[in-house]
């Protein structure tokens, strides 16, 4: 604070002289009237003027955060901080001269600590280029008490008796109690404490993460779409709990991925037509499997794969992976569309870890009966037994299609808890569905 103030304020010396004169004249007059040492009074006024000039003169950094005080450095860093050492020395001369002048060490110590808190409180309220920090309060308060101890030792040695009196002790204790209560209330109700060091570290970490995200996404774009693909737009969406969705639009397609997992979520090529290649079905499947094993090794392991033609895109084929545990289809989804030239046209993935589920107790036949009873429809047809979230928890569910007898159009899909048999409404899947790449805010 001292060093910054001196460097930032060229007129500080002039302000110090003016403050010394304004405080020194009444101090000298009072000292003369009470037969106190005038020279010591002027010295006390000068040291107090120095503190007020350095701490209360508006800085040159503009308006800062109003009513905010920084929690400061860790203790080990505080001890080695040059700023803390300078702030400690700032209060020593004032408390030494005040103790020698008034001969009330307890009152001076209480007043020094109260002054340290008051200055930082004022800085927080004004915030004109000043910054409130608990480091300054600590250093100033220690300096004030340290100066009192030095002067007390000097008086003790000189007079051969302790300079403490009952009156001073009572006054000092009273000042400490009243000022402490008032300042504590003022800080509690009007000041917001922030961890500036932690915020700086978080900001630095965010910049590092952003750089890593961009580098990873650029490498991913080049690997999937080729080095000729140019990134035209990027985006980032916060998902909570330190997770993000990254997106990139390129001249050849779009990519969505999860961070920090570095997992692809979707890939969509702008060229959504088959290439007219001459690969066989087996060769196309091999190309899609190679892509899956490279980008989704955990999802491929233990999963069942199906390969079929895509009706909407003539020639293109779809390779999908699903994993089953005790007959229940897990939430993991992986769908890859490959062309007859081996080009990956589209990918959608839900890379959810297999959840732990309770044991299924409702059979397929029982689920059909319960579904028909619950909906008053006929021809129940369980589509599959799958894991889905219900009210935030993973449950095994029977997904059942129902239709009115003799009608193919009037259908309904219901979900039954495979443990309780009750009808439930599952949450929608988090990952984008095939053919619907996710979007996010621009970055």
UniProtKB/TrEMBL annotation:
Keywords: Membrane, Transmembrane, Transmembrane helix. The keyword Cell inner membrane does not apply. Residues 86-153 form the VanZ-like domain. Pfam families: VanZ. This is VanZ-like protein. Coiled coil: none annotated. The keyword Membrane applies. Residues 421-443 are annotated as: Disordered. The chain crosses the membrane at residues 12-31, 38-57, 84-102, 109-127, 139-157, 169-191. It comes from Streptomyces lydicamycinicus.
